[in-house]
Amino acid sequence: MSDGTALARVAVDLPLSHLDRFFDYTVPDDMAANAVVGARVRVRFAGRACNGFIAERPTSTEVTGRLLPLTKVVSPEPVLLPDQVRLIRAVADHYAGTFADVARLAVAPRHAATEASAAAVWPAPMVAMPPGGLRGVPAGESWLRGVESGRPLRGFWAVTPGWRGDDDWRRGVVQAVQAALLGGKGAIVVVPDAAAMQAGFSALSAALGDGCVARLHAQMGPARRYHDYLALSRGQSRVVIGTRPAVFAPVRDLGLIVLVDDGSDAYAEPRAPYPHTRTVAALRASGTPGQADGCALLLAGPARSCEAQRWIERGWLGVIEDQPKRRRGGSPAMRSVPEAASAAHLPVEAAQTIRAGLVAGPVLVQVPRAGYLVALACQKCRTPVRCPVCNGPVAAEKGADGGRRLVCRWCGRTSVGWRCATCGGTTLRAPVVGSGRTAEELGRAFPGFRVIDSSGDHIVETVGDQPALVVATPGAEPLPAAGYSAAVLLDADLMLSRADMRAGEEAVRRWLNAVSLVRPGQRGGTVCIVGDSHAPAVQAVLRVDAAGFAARELAERAAAGLPPATLFVEASGEGAALADFVGALDLPVPGDWFGPVELVLTDGQLRGRMLWRCDLADGPALVAAIKAAMAKRSAAKAAGVVRVQVDPDQMG
Q1: Helix or strand or coil: residue 182?
Q2: Which residues pair with 469 in a beta bridge?
Q3: DSSP secondary structure code for residue 558 in this structure
Q4: pTM of the entire structure?
Q5: What is the rounded average pLDDT of the residues 256-273?
């Protein structure tokens, strides 16, 4: 149809696979001025009112017959830019999801009062590039010049682990953003958590000027979040820093995406279609139809994920790093000791490291888990303590009165009068202790020193330069004012024994992030790892060789046919629903399939699980077949829910 009627192509908020496309509507004359691309609208669909966004304003339609008109333009504010539309479509197709599900992750919820209020003044950023950072690394200076000239360069900056004040990842990120701004482009900086966002925001604001950097974070208030989102979509702000949602930010004329610590599990989206921020950043940087050139991409961090290593080996990602000798010189002195053979939790060598470190400043003690006595077993027969109701693991918590109570970690029920069902014993042992118990033990072992527990719901943001014992779980380490004088990484073997394909990779990442907070060896900084020194992950940290470990890990996964060398798709759900889903597949599909197998979840319910595996080149065909099966079930209104996840982050 092309009769001069005004048209709008609408992305209707319909999270159903068989309706995952745009729909054409006519635009009434009284709405024509406000019905702009990116505006929020209301439409009639299947007899009910639905929300949506105008994705296009076409001049013709292939639909035959009468089109319905737009019901209402909810807001004429263009909050969904064409670049975002293309990205959302690419992400939905990559992860077998729908446009509507990805759009919910990408677009900040509307706050009408903020939208109607007078726009704030966003000053132009300053671009005086500081020394150090990327400029002090071989290939870093030339990379920055390339970004400034508008080239879509892609690099991995291997940040040397070791405390250097503000000359860490933050300074390099500031320089990269300034290079993009000098080239007349905008920039997105994505970090894993709120603490990193605040640190990066402070550094960017100090360098670019107060009031010119936007923030996007899921925990921001709705008014503030929408305020900063509008500043980006309107072109008032050209720089944004945030967590997962920031990778979709409506930055106009985007020239750079920076992703800090790309291996963090915080980048795995827990909502459908479960996109990983690293992959979304790569899709956006690679360019989508209509934006063939893409933009520059920088991954930064002391550790290296297997995904980043695969991109490096393919030549898609360049490496920016110090020479090995300089990297080791800028890191703390490293040593490892085996776990204590006795019941003592702290080996003698680790205690000596702490004692020497306390002379010069605060000492970090990293433990894998929060809590008090995280796991319990019978002292006599070693049988693990389980909940009599749900069979979940039982831990000991310290009560307000100083006593201990046994609590199920699954259902939260308290156990009283415990007795071992195997041998009848009543005495408990704790094979795994948490940060609370560790802090208690260290307080007794080193009297006179302040002990700080940063874990769980109680995370301490900063610590001064005075001697103190800081017990923290991975990711909860307080930022030191002048660097930690020493660090002890406890229970390395426990971190490596997790039933997870990424256990070693995640352990190296967490350890190197802790090492980054310790002063270099030239200033007396020391790190002691308590665990098997022959473990490849421990060796990687001792040698400050994250690259070598990532290459080895990737080679082993390729030999075993595991991600990221291959593509995996997981489907899970109730047995009947999963069987129906498999029956809806148009066979044959590329690759191999495994299952179904039955799993008992923590809530006691039974679920089935299927896995498909194929070569990366066949990935799009497999995902398309999976999505087609989902569309068939959606159209037929099949009973039961099947959860589909492409390249699940957890493969335990």
Answers
A1: helix
A2: 363, 451
A3: H
A4: 0.90
A5: 96
